[in-house]
Design goal:
The longest helix is centred in the middle third of the chain and has 25 residues, at 65-89. This protein has one domain (5-121). The mean pLDDT is 85. By secondary structure, it is mostly helical. It has helices at residues 5-27, 36-54, 56-62, 65-89, 98-121.
């Protein structure tokens, strides 16, 4: 069941701003509160809004489950590598790893939220 044209149009207008705000949180996470987890939740919410307003099947054509799952796995590997390098090279993690770490945490959390929502809506959505 799709929502009204007003809900669909509003969601299309709001989603880019949510993605921009998530990028802001990632980029300025070392100087202000926020970071990868919060940005990932906002990225996930942007996709979940599109799924809710436009329907599961239509959005899944753009954000394929294999792609989202691959992004989640890849970002998990990169996070592990970043943390491993930080532990080996320095006794305390430096600021040089904060930005890449937050970027991949944001991707991992956003893709995880999207996959969870895919699983929940796969059985209920019938367009």
């Amino acid at each position: 069941m799709r929502m009204s044209i007003v809900a669909r149009t509003t969601t299309k207008l709001i989603s880019p701003f949510l993605v921009t705000y998530a990028a802001y949180l990632i980029l300025y996470s070392s100087v202000s509160p926020g970071g990868g987890f919060q940005a990932g939740v906002i990225l996930g919410v942007a996709i979940i809004l599109l799924i809710t307003s436009h329907g599961y099947k239509r959005v899944r054509k753009r954000f394929k489950k294999k792609l989202v799952s691959g992004l989640e796995g890849f970002s998990g590997v990169i996070i592990s590598l970043i943390l491993g390098i930080a532990i080996i090279l320095t006794p305390l993690p430096s600021e040089s790893i904060t930005l890449p770490f937050n970027i991949f945490v944001g991707i991992k959390v956003g893709s995880a939220f999207t996959l969870i929502f895919y699983s929940l809506t796969a059985f209920m959505e019938r367009d």
